[in-house]
Amino acid sequence: MATQNQGGMGSTGNMGSGGGAGSSAGTSGSAGTGRQAGTGGAQATGAPDVTYNLVSILYHALHGAETYQQYIQDAEQAGNRELAQFFREVHDENRRRAERGQQLLAQCISQRGGNPRMSQ
Q1: Is position 92 within any domain?
Q2: Distances from the Cα of 73 to the Cαs of 89, 91, 107, in angstroms?
């Protein structure tokens, strides 16, 4: 899958939503936040890193889908059907990613008896 690009950032930009992994060497984290695995999310939010990561991916997928909707309109107004179609495909990928994230979050909550903390 190609890395998606938002708001003019490069393929390693923080707003990318290509799976939620950070782009800096030696780090992994939530949607390119640059925080190292096992640190930050749980300490800052009280949520385990896996839950924080899932919520972050969900947020970025939904935000991306909203952003790409504007890109579709821009391409259509410019009369570029091929580009508009590409943006529709990217938009649809993010919508599917968001739907899957919602399913996993609901599963996480139901498995933990209403507590969204997932075992790590």
Answers
A1: yes
A2: 14, 12, 35
Greatest Cα pair distance in the chain? 51
Domain ranges, residue 86: 50-111
Q: The pTM is what?
A: 0.57
Q: Is the separation of the CB atoms in 34 and 14 below 8 Å? A: yes
Place of tokens 């990217």: 90
pLDDT digits (tens, 9 = 90+) for 35-72: 455 555 556 666 667 888 899 999 999 999 999 999 99
Cα angle vertex 81, ends 79, 82, to 5°? 135
Overall number of domains in the chain? 1
